[in-house]
């Protein structure tokens, strides 16, 4: 399924894309598509890489820390079909002279919608409610059990006030929530959506009936939601995560959910996914989703086209809009 035209750069696409994305990349490049959507291992990608000038890959690809050093000299650019890039070592890519791009901006609304779904689902018992209906135990409900938790008018703390955090704040205002946020620096004007800035993450925590994790995974944020920081949340708080699983210490979160320190959690991302900590599956007060923050046709299509835009810019000799390896 490679497009004709030997003068065009050769691109390996590691996973199946939306049809319009596959049509376009095949028109623009000599692209090899993954029609069957069979996951490629790191070794399989490396074995083919010498035939290509660039790779369009995804955060689903299991690459490992030695992937970029093992790339052949032919690979000049990697376009990742994701905003997060913790599956790639940017310092290694920069040292090797391989450009890396991502897809910010186009999945903001879809991911913020999932953040609100997690807030509502965790608070109101969407997972256990669904199980009761499917398991035909609905008749066991009483006026006092089971019950969820209020959302409207409660305090929401947002960890990471970038595009997605701002979109979450905008949605939360519709529920009359009192907004707080922590980021590396305050955002300006209307982008705060009336939220109060806290320079220290720990200072925000006592004001959080809900904590929404929307920051990037960095050395500073990995494991930042742990026993110490959870202890500073109000008793009965609810934690939701649509960012990256490694921002949370799984053992500490599970312990807080089991003890009742936290009322509930809503999680769309996990460390080591899809091989998550199996204890999550045993907890009634966790609303679990399979990393679907960007999973709408429009969003996945826009992400694919953004990858192609970056690839086109690079091979025209221009600086890609979403270059991660620049100065």
Write up what this structure looks like:
The protein is α/β, with parallel strands linked by helices. The chain has helices spanning 19-28, 42-49, 90-96, 108-124, 126-134, 163-173, 201-204, 227-230, 250-259, 297-315, and strands at 10-13, 30-32, 54-57, 77-80, 99-101, 155-159, 178-182, 196-197, 210-213, 237-241, 262-267, 286-288. The strands form two sheets. The chain has a seven-stranded parallel beta sheet. A five-stranded parallel beta sheet has the order 2-1-3-4-5, with helices on both faces. The longest helix is centred in the last third of the chain and has 19 residues, at 297-315. It is globular and about 70 Å long. It has two domains: 10-106 and 296-315, NAD(P)-binding Rossmann-like Domain (Rossmann fold); 108-288, NAD(P)-binding Rossmann-like Domain (Rossmann fold, 3-Layer(aba) Sandwich). The protein contains ten helices and twelve strands. 30% of the residues lie in helices and 15% in strands. Helix 1 (19-28) runs parallel beside helix 10 (297-315) and helix 4 packs across helix 6.
Topology:
Elements: E1 10-13, H1 19-28, E2 30-32, H2 42-49, E3 54-57, E4 77-80, H3 90-96, E5 99-101, H4 108-124, H5 126-134, E6 155-159, H6 163-173, E7 178-182, E8 196-197, H7 201-204, E9 210-213, H8 227-230, E10 237-241, H9 250-259, E11 262-267, E12 286-288, H10 297-315
Parallel strand pairs: 1-2, 1-3, 3-4, 4-5, 6-7, 6-9, 7-8, 9-10, 10-11, 11-12
Helix pairs in contact: 1-10, 4-6
Q: How would you sum up this structure in a few lines?
A:
The protein has ten helices and twelve strands. The protein is α/β, with parallel strands linked by helices and 327 residues long.
